[in-house]
Specification:
Helix 4 runs antiparallel to helix 5 and helix 5 runs antiparallel to helix 6. This protein folds into 3 domains: 41 residues; 126 residues, Nucleoside Triphosphate Pyrophosphohydrolase (Alpha-Beta Complex); 114 residues. The strands form 3 sheets. Strands 5, 6, 7, 8, 9, 10, 11 and 12 form an 8-stranded mixed beta sheet that branches. Helix content is 37%, strand content 30%.
């Protein structure tokens, strides 16, 4: 651990307490720079540690609360949470706060990370805990004077809410960003998450289905060989275009949908996917050619020339 650049100046009277109540203690303490020797007073707020809970329901929505904050004089959208009780553990506090504020419970809680709430003024830390498969268990059990409105938000909307400033509580935004960063970590597979391969194959499959449908509609007025050769001619082009579209970006796949995620280091995976695509195109081409020969008894060379 790096040694702090300032150290507390010990005095005979100790810290000067300015205000103390049930919620916090405000005191004045003197610190001195180890480098310059400069010393002056700092105001410090001693406050209990806090916890916030990223709760995900079975239908892939994140449980948020909206409540009034006197400091900003406005309602704030944020994860449920609150201060620790005396001698309470992080995970115990997380389960308690989640159930009190929302009435939800879920899988065993998992600690995601911790940070200083406001290190320039406060002694407290905030812990972010994840609870999966949250379900309604009971009614809210709020403190006197507390008004909390629940909101279930699809998890895919969280990045946009952060970007647009709809979630602007700094500690809540940090917890959600930490959770998103953890789930996007390609070095491991998190709960329900994995980095998807380029979606060229899926896009091409849909294009193949569409092309097949068009060819099927044309069978009534055209011969089987014409319909087959139509697919042979159009499918490779459609496939390669789809591969390029799917491989230009890499998509993040999780339990609740897809999001664009640029990952340049996955170019090798896209190259491998493209090779598989080309092999599939070749196999499809050869299969259709032999089907055409089988049903129409045409010369192979004539068919290849026509298809080409």
């Amino acid at each position: 651990m790096i040694e702090p650049s300032w150290e507390r100046v010990r005095t005979s009277t100790g810290p000067s307490v300015i205000e103390e109540n049930w919620l916090f203690q405000l005191r004045r303490e003197r610190f001195q720079s180890r480098q310059s020797g400069l010393a002056h007073d700092f105001f410090i707020i001693k406050l209990a540690d806090a916890v916030q809970v990223i709760a995900i329901t079975e239908d892939h929505k994140i449980l948020m609360v909206r409540q009034f904050r006197a400091g900003s004089e406005r309602d704030s959208l944020e994860p449920p949470g609150g201060l620790f009780n005396r001698n309470e553990s992080v995970l115990t506090a997380a389960v308690r706060e989640l159930e009190e504020e929302t009435g939800y419970t879920g899988d065993p809680p998992r600690l995601l990370g911790e940070a200083w709430s406001n290190p320039s003024l406060m002694t407290s830390k905030i812990y972010t805990v994840v609870v999966m498969n949250a379900k309604k268990h009971s009614n809210q059990n709020l403190d006197p004077g507390e008004e909390v409105r629940l909101e279930l938000i699809p998890v895919g909307e969280v990045p946009l809410l952060l970007k647009d400033g709809k979630i602007d509580h700094a500690l809540g935004a940090w917890g959600l960003t930490l959770w998103l960063a953890a789930e996007c970590d390609s070095s491991r597979i998190a709960d329900g998450f994995a980095l998807a391969k380029p979606r060229g194959s899926w896009r091409a499959t849909r294009l193949l289905i569409a092309a097949s449908g068009i060819a099927a509609l044309g069978i009534a007025g055209r011969s089987l060989i014409s319909a087959a050769l139509f697919l042979v001619e159009t499918f490779p082009t459609l496939w390669l275009v789809a591969c390029l579209l799917g491989g230009s970006t890499v998509w993040l796949r999780n339990n609740w949908g897809y999001s664009i995620l640029v990952r340049p280091r996955l170019v090798r995976e896209f190259a491998w996917e493209s090779c598989l695509c080309l092999l599939w195109v070749l196999a499809w081409f050869v299969t259709l050619i032999f089907i055409a020969i089988l049903f129409q008894k045409l010369d192979l060379i004539d068919v290849l020339k026509f298809a080409w």
